[in-house]
Amino acid sequence: MNVIETSIEGVVIIEPRLFKDDRGYFFESFNEGEFTSKVAPVRFVQDNESKSSYGVVRGLHFQKGEHAQAKLLRVVRGAVLDVAVDIRPGSPTFGRHVAVELTEENHRQLFIPRGLAHGFSVLSEEAVFQYKCDNFYCPSSEGAVAWDDPDLGIDWRIPADKVLLSPKDSAHPRLADLALCMNM
């Protein structure tokens, strides 16, 4: 696998080695030994999958404290714009984000370490999104940042009138407000 560093420490793009022939293709989507040596020593404990239609924006979610999660994300059908926002107190890139297009054609994956908020927008008619987590989901430890926080400046690549949100995702605080409440 090819590992591409981003502008946020610990956030990397992973391009698997693809083997193609007239029958189709094969690739390893995860190999613990190679991942540990090239990216980070992480033990994943939970796999998640979501299916969404064009214009859906999910996020920006995170887990707090001892329930924080590192994630390895990929798309198996369609295309998404995957976004990671650094919310680690004291980080030199606090409040900055990385946005990467993950598609069924490019087979790219994005690794997000603990301490970052995560979200994605669906760019295709439909998308099936899978991700591994290194910690179990804990409802009492969930947190989120407003997907449209102007201070973050994220271009979700969806026209505003086409964005589809859950009621919960439409009511998250801005990062500045969240930082004040949490003494970040």
Account of the 3D structure:
This protein is mostly beta strands. 8% of the residues lie in helices and 40% in strands. The chain has 2 helices and 13 strands, in the order E-E-E-E-H-E-E-E-E-E-E-E-E-E-H. The chain has helices at 32-38, 175-182, and strands at 2-5, 12-15, 19-21, 24-26, 46-53, 57-63, 71-77, 79-86, 97-103, 109-112, 116-122, 126-133, 142-144. The strands form 3 sheets. A 6-stranded antiparallel sheet has the order 1-2-10-7-12-5, with no helix packed on it. A 5-stranded antiparallel sheet has the order 9-8-11-6-13, with no helix packed on it. It is globular. The model has no long low-confidence stretch (mean pLDDT 94).
Strand percentage lies at: 35-45%
Radius of gyration: 16 Å
The main β sheet shows up as:
6 strands, antiparallel
Figure out the total of helices.
2
Class by SSE composition: mainly beta
| Beginning-to-end CA distance, first to last residue | 35 Å
Determine the mean pLDDT: 94
Strand order of the largest sheet: 1-2-10-7-12-5
Helix content: under 10%
Secondary-structure element order, N to C: EEEEHEEEEEEEEEH
Unreliable residue stretches? none
Overall 3D geometry?
Answer: globular
Beta strand count = 13
List the helices and strands and how they pair.
Elements: E1 2-5, E2 12-15, E3 19-21, E4 24-26, H1 32-38, E5 46-53, E6 57-63, E7 71-77, E8 79-86, E9 97-103, E10 109-112, E11 116-122, E12 126-133, E13 142-144, H2 175-182
Antiparallel strand pairs: 1-2, 2-10, 3-4, 5-12, 6-11, 6-13, 7-10, 7-12, 8-9, 8-11
